[in-house]
Amino acid sequence: MIRHIKELLDNAIIDLKRDQAFTLEKDIEIQIERTRNKTHGDYASNIALMLAKPLGKNPREIAQQIIDQLPESQHVSKTEIAGPGFINFFLTMACQRQVIKKVLKKKETFATNTLGQDQNITVEFVSANPTGPLHVGHGRGAAFGSSLSNLLEKCGYQVQREYYVNDHGRQMDILATSVWLRYLELCGETITFPDNGYKGDYIVDIARTFRQKYGDDWRFTEHDVFEDIPADESAGGDKEKHIDALIERAKSQLGKGFTKVFKLALDSILSGISDDLEEFNVIYEEWFSERSLHDSDTIQRALNTLEKNGHLYKKDGALWFNATHFGDEKDRVVERENGQKTYFASDIAYLLNKFERNFDQAIYILGADHHGYIARLKAAAQALGLDPDKVEILLVQFAHLFKGGEKLQMSTRSGSFITLHELIDEVGKDAARFFYVMRSHEQHLDFDMDLAKSQSNDNPVFYIQYAHARICSLFRKLEEHGYQYNAEIGLVATDLLNEEHETDLIRSLSQYPEVIESAGRNRSVQAVANYLRELAQLLHSYYNAHKVVQIEDENMRNARLNLCEATRVVLADGLRILGSSAPEAMYSEDKLGQQQAHG
Fold first, then answer.
1. Are residues 371 and 341 in contact, defined by beta-carbon separation less than 8 angstroms?
2. pTM for this entry
């Protein structure tokens, strides 16, 4: 419909220019938006305001000239000038009612668009270091990334979901060393555990598995492990030097055994992460290993490309990337004095690899603490000869968990945190997915666990799911009253849907394609959540005000059933995008204010 109104305005302006009523040096882009208040019509355009300066006229005068020149349209009942010069368009009810037929015909493909047609896009999200189980902080990135991927597919993109496994580097060495030290404790050694080690119970579980598999094969005495190791922070020393020395000791004493404990720890934690994400309805097409970049020539090829393009230089024995040349705040080391590649070198190689896999665009979904990555990744893309606009970095703000009105504190290194698995067990996958995305990813989120578990109209996901279940109950009631659903009869009788609750529902359904396209364009998953809440509210109001099943008039009954079924289809599709289920029955029908069910 937006395209149709644009065509009407285009034709009017062309005619006014031909008649020399308008003299324009260049065309003005026509902007059309849905009105927020239905008394202002269905759509509004600010074209007259935009033309005021180049034409040197009053915008209301321009608006009237445009309205007088608009071609006739069977879809537009009237136009009005509002405020300083907005043109409001009112659609005919016959036009608006057509949405019911479209939804019933297209089902789950309704609102699918071509925004990303022929675009192959990779979305990388979560990518938490495999040094422990996922916690509730990772849940927001998982819910947002998964929902955004679903939304982009709805918008015609070919989407690949990817998890970047950080299975190389110091943190993984700390993990393996932590497991080995717990293993030594299980063997009977008295170990003073390092301040900077991973302390969660899961480390002990992995160590226990390691001992079951290898017995005392990799046992060393406390003296063997700690002799000449620099003091830890708790003993007045430096915790970083202490843990680094323990890593080197573990590697030297274990030899191949270090690889065994490293692999067991990685596989165990990665398996748990995969299981938790699958339970959270998050599925990946690719688990990409950082080690694969080191095992292949990708990192060196990336650096060679930067050097060839003149963007590397030597300083203090290290190799630097001149990132400031591309707007970054400082230059970045890519190879240390000892020849070891940095994490950023891996990031550059990974970026190159994505586009070598023929993706047209790469979306990174990172935590808010990765803000600095925006400039440096954009710089790397440009230096590699890639289009930096094809690299999109979305930052997800932190989620704070509340229970019983109190904020829950977490520390990953100490192991005192609530896992994603525990959150799902307590509030359910559907509520967790919805609560994580009902605010913009750019805003901080306060996650109220008590509200998420409640079965009331204050709980948005319950409220939406209950709307879907209520509609399903209508069709079950048909059989109880000896009626049959006939969609064709209902479509013929669509003009009977004139109640205000019905026209409000119809208007909301017709907005869904625009919501989806706008949300996909702006990466605003929360817009879908907000829309579903509003649609559910309209459905509940309609359900409580009007009978649907217990109507003698077959035409009216089927027309209303069609409207309800179209609403159900859209509710289910929106919930699917957000990763929540659309139940056909719920067993707390008395929880929504003891409302009377009309049927």
1. no
2. 0.90
